């Protein structure tokens, strides 16, 4: 039991010394949730966060070329994501697999499709959480397809099993959603799921904001993993900015006014006027008032000078 817990938290990135201290204080039979809370309370952080180095200077990239360098391929967890410009990805494995299996079969191929999609984009930190009992042989009430994919992803340190056990013939399962939200929150990453986690939103106000702003929903179209181009709605950021640590603001697009110099909208006109690039866009009435005020003010100044003389 000690070794299994030690391996589990080592996969999450915590140091062995901190894990052993917590297990000594709480006992070997402590639940994983309690151990994780104690690690957070002690201020222990995953090694990927502690071993962060100073970011390398930015490199100029030719316009139109891919921003990812040739060496930014999949390197596993050991490489870390400190120098990566893309956010860490935490995938709700059960939600993705059931969605790909039309809510009837736990399709592991759907998890592989999602992982491959983020790999091709250049993400270096990808974690998939699946309950431990999914390693058991499939049954009629819980069919599983392509179960060997889970073993392959576990060997690549991508898939993490949330603990479960049997007590008097009954299965005791830990809440895997809490693991997903906790790891994504600590890594400042993105949650890939179609679940809204409303119970966890009510549990913690910080989690509520994080889930609302960092939840990436998706669809499967003919065995193709497709997240939306506007994850936060029509007026929100694009998918590239949503998955990037340093979003790029779009360049403003100026459309010339179809009326040209005959436009009478003034500053209310939403189009671009090349004849007044650096001038305040005044309405026609305001421009006429400004022209009238200038000679009147000059006349008043001449009268004042004459009176003083």
UniProtKB/TrEMBL annotation:
<dbReference type="Pfam" id="PF11977">
    <property type="entry name" value="RNase_Zc3h12a"/>
</dbReference>
<dbReference type="InterPro" id="IPR051101">
    <property type="entry name" value="ZC3H12/N4BP1_RNase_Reg"/>
</dbReference>
<keyword id="KW-0378">Hydrolase</keyword>
<keyword id="KW-0460">Magnesium</keyword>
<dbReference type="GO" id="GO:0016787">
    <property type="term" value="F:hydrolase activity"/>
</dbReference>
<feature type="zinc finger region" description="C3H1-type">
    <location>
        <begin position="256"/>
        <end position="276"/>
    </location>
</feature>
<dbReference type="GO" id="GO:0036464">
    <property type="term" value="C:cytoplasmic ribonucleoprotein granule"/>
</dbReference>
<dbReference type="GO" id="GO:0003729">
    <property type="term" value="F:mRNA binding"/>
</dbReference>
<dbReference type="GO" id="GO:0004521">
    <property type="term" value="F:RNA endonuclease activity"/>
</dbReference>
<protein>
    <submittedName>
        <fullName>ZC12D ribonuclease</fullName>
    </submittedName>
</protein>
<keyword id="KW-0862">Zinc</keyword>
<keyword id="KW-0479">Metal-binding</keyword>
<dbReference type="InterPro" id="IPR040546">
    <property type="entry name" value="Rege-1_UBA-like"/>
</dbReference>
<dbReference type="Pfam" id="PF18039">
    <property type="entry name" value="UBA_6"/>
</dbReference>
<keyword id="KW-0255">Endonuclease</keyword>
<dbReference type="InterPro" id="IPR021869">
    <property type="entry name" value="RNase_Zc3h12_NYN"/>
</dbReference>
<dbReference type="GO" id="GO:0005634">
    <property type="term" value="C:nucleus"/>
</dbReference>
<dbReference type="GO" id="GO:0008270">
    <property type="term" value="F:zinc ion binding"/>
</dbReference>
<keyword id="KW-0540">Nuclease</keyword>
<comment type="similarity">
    <text>Belongs to the ZC3H12 family.</text>
</comment>
<keyword id="KW-0863">Zinc-finger</keyword>
<dbReference type="InterPro" id="IPR000571">
    <property type="entry name" value="Znf_CCCH"/>
</dbReference>
<feature type="domain" description="C3H1-type">
    <location>
        <begin position="256"/>
        <end position="276"/>
    </location>
</feature>
